[in-house]
Amino acid sequence: MAKLRITLVKSAIGYEKSQKRTLAALGLRRLNQCVTHSDSAPIRGMVEKVKHLVKLEAASGDAE
Questions:
Q1: Where are the domains of the chain?
Q2: What is the pLDDT of residues 23-51, one digit of tens each?
Q3: Whether this model's pTM surpasses 0.85
């Protein structure tokens, strides 16, 4: 299955609580922190909700 690398590039200060919870659910706490998730519909939906705060890339190879 394909993997996605998600990086937090903008602070969540001043944004809705639901967006902060979405970032927490993705495992993002600090600025410039990267996490890797499998490419699935629920993950894509969470990324869509906070797309203005994160950068999305395809993870290469077996990076975990």
A1: 3-59
A2: 999 999 999 999 999 999 999 999 999 99
A3: yes
